[in-house]
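== Protein entry: sequence and backbone fold ==
=== Local backbone shapes as whole numbers ===
==== Amino acids and backbone structure tokens ====
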Amino acid sequence: MVTLVQIRRPAAPLALVVESLAVAGRRLRRLRRAPGRLIGIIMNPLVSMVVLGYLFRGSLSVTGAGGYQEYIFAGVAAQAGLAGIGPTAVAVAEDLRGGLVARFRSLPISRPAVLVGHTLGDLAVGLIGLAVVTVLGVLFGWRPDNGPLSVLAGFALLALFMYAMLWIGVLLGLFSRNLETINVVAGLVTVLFSFLSNAFQSVDRLPSALRVMAEWNPVSAVVTQTRRLWGNPTATGGSFPTDHASLALAVSLGVVFVLTVFLSLRRYRTAAH
């Protein structure tokens, strides 16, 4: 006599966590075969530190012991978050083109788990890249001037920013399966978000129309708040987003995160068909 045992799936919240971690583990295992993702995350900030930190260090007058090198490091660290948009978009698009997402949809797993797993795996890779960039930043002259708790809070803020940017990559990969288009759009987003902000210069030097965009750019809010947490030089433009960086951060980054997650999950319902 054969006894049939019914295997029950965990409760929905627990199932989502377990399944998301499984997909994240798959992304991390692929890193061994394709380490270019990590190299790309490191190279963009490294180039900015070398080119801007030395060639253009006299372009902005800031106060503080570290001068311009300390001023730009928060912007350089934010670039590590932006650098993850393209690889995440490419990975999602490749899964769609290869039919992997369709196979996932045929399994009894939570639909959000695939996308959440992608972002968690790429977040781990991004944090590794951020750690390497931080070591390089110290070698190039960056020093935090506040206590360890404030320094950790600054890195936690960068991690939240990085995670929100990864959802932009997910959305891009769901809407465009052409890898060339993804690379062009991701590169454009990275450049615009980086340089249309206060990452490398004060926004009061920009034309008035661009200045408003730069002030409400999530990168500007993250960079300003991170500089304050680290005790690094901060260029103040006297605008509302600059003087209320915490509020500007919550509004700008919150809008980006909520919209990209909502649109990504909605698109995912039909993307595999």
Notes: Residues 1-11 have pLDDT under 50 and may be disordered. The two ends are 43 Å apart (CA to CA). The first helix runs from residue 12 to 31.
